[in-house]
Please model this.
Amino acid sequence: MALGQLGFDHGRSCADSEARFNDAQTLGDAVGRLVAQAQMVAFCGNPVRALAGLKEVVKADPGSIAAPVFLARLQRQEGHGDGARKSLGGVLRRQPPPPSALLERAHLHRDRGQLRRADDDYAAFQRSAPWPRGVYDGAMGRAVTALRAGDAERAKSHVGVAEAALGETPEVLWLRGRVAMDGGTPEGAERAAEALEALDAVKVTRRSRAFSLHLRGRLALERGDLQTAVGSFYDAVAERTPETGLFILELAGALDAAGEPERAIDTLSQWLETWPLHAPALCALSAFEARRGRRDHALKLSRRAFEFWSDESGELAMRECKRRKRELEIGSDPR
Model:
């Protein structure tokens, strides 16, 4: 199945979003509306168009906070870490730094695997935004960072802080399920998935559906039901959420476990056509290529991953990628 069939075809609503973005620029619309329209254009699969438009907005209104922060977010997602840091630089020099800029810098550190710096920035964001939404966003950022560092207990603590701030949101339920899986208690993940599936219609979103599908996939893997796991991860990817990159990795792993490594490679390759510097996907594809004996290509992929990923990464998966890259470089067996 191609990624286009997994929900990367965007249709009329996305064409309308780009048209509205063009109209907003022509009419000299307010910065806030321009940024909102750029978000839609980017989400609908045209980040290059959104990036170009946002750069013009920043030039036209250098005092804006929203435009450079969202520009940095897009640059980060596209793998342009240096550009993202540059876009945030001027905003972060303000005293005090705007909370939104601190939060985006935290995401940038986390995306580059600089987990300690990310946690520090999430904590600074929480201090600068002590209202419930700020506490929640900071705590959720710290929870994901802890999970990526392999610390399920710390993640559980931060999820508790987030829940105390805004209640049992779909994201809280999802992370609670992930913490349970990583902590070796799949029954907790089962309860989280059931709670997500029991949400009333008003609260159901693409993300909540994707979260429950992801947990169902993890649970299916746990009990060895590989075909169900593959189907759940495919469906999670189809929801097109900010977590799609994680779901792609889970899908590729499930396909490989099910004895379909070529489909796993195809899935990762198609994803990288859209997000060419998604370091974990580059590392996963590098591992497949090394296994197939294509050592030169595997090394090229792993080196490209570290063009964006920090060499000081604290993430478990990236530590393994770094080890593999070194072994490929010295010509030893990468398995």
